[in-house]
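quick one before i forget lol
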Amino acid sequence: MDLILALVLFVITYICLLIFPKWRAYIALGSAALFIALQIIPIKNVPTAIDWNVILMIGGTMGIVSLFIASKMPSLMADMIIKKMPNVAWAIIALSLFSGIISAFVDNVATVLMVAPVAITISKKLNISPVKSIIAIAISSNLQGAATLVGDTTSIMLGSQANMTFIDFFWYQGHLGLFFVVQAAALVSMLVLMFVFRKNKQAISINEKTEVTDYFPTVLLLGMIVLLIIASFIPNKWDITNGLICVGLMIVGLIYTIIKTKNWKVLKDTAKEIDYFTLMLLAGIFIIIGGLESAGVIDKIAEVIQKMGGGNKFAIYTILVWASVLISAFIDNIPYTATMLPVVAAIAANLGIDPTVLYFGLISGATLGGNLTPIGASANITGLGILRKEGHEVKALDFMKISVPFTLAAVTTGYVLIWLFWGI
């Protein structure tokens, strides 16, 4: 009975998450409350169902990124790249690669907000449309979400589920890690962008150079990466170690800024930049998933996928990758990934195999699949919002003329490499 009730409530929750995107956090928390009230998940299990390490890592990283953006360092780095480019085509491709590199360590939406204004400025100076440029930047930043442990919420959840360290994303089980798989996918997808911008040969120059007066936020961001690497080598560490590192550095940054400016306004500004909506959404989803596990729903879903794949590892891997691409093209990949990670673990356990290839297939499909449509990823929505403010309404078809070949090139590359590295 609990299984059917939990499944029905979960389906209703998911439908509501799709229909009412502005209310997702409240829907998730409301559904979580029902799971508790109906005793689908015992109340004593609620605190452990929430992955506090993920919550703290995301919140802390958001705070550090807000200080990093305010320092104008990303804009300076973009100026330096553009200065080396001969024309618009290469400038936009360079900006896309640049946004991808930043996005491997910084939230995708924050990355788009950093880099998009540079592309808008270039377009205005040359009197050309910024539409294709912003689309390229958005999908490139979204692509890199799976590259590192802190690249995206989905990567943070993967790291927690699979006990992966920061280093594991670079070297794992005797092979180049997911980071290099993503970079290979990025290089292949760049060929698509080179074709898209092949006619944009206008010369370009940037006369005004951004000035950075505070390098401390950059040190903080680099320090976070270094400390996460160091922490990955510490045995028997606290489960929330990575989260404490990120939150701790954010607090250091706030104290430093308050002392330097003698103004407490930075607390309010940074607090505004933290996406509490996403944090509440995640907390609610973690409780819901805990309820699904308690009711046995996760095991049942695993059985269904297992039967579809005929118990064959390659068939199940293929289903996971391409189904994740299609699903993530239309729905938020955070609730989807959070739901599917324990399903993948159950499938691997049933088959008696290492879950790595299935985990990586899920993450690559879910992360890259969001690039297929304008609503598939927050970075895409943000980019189109910037264009709308500039007076450019972008049709879904125009977006997909770039995003579909870009995504197919990236996913196919990742699909092949992940199987070669961890499937055979």
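fyi The beta strands are 171-172, 175-176.
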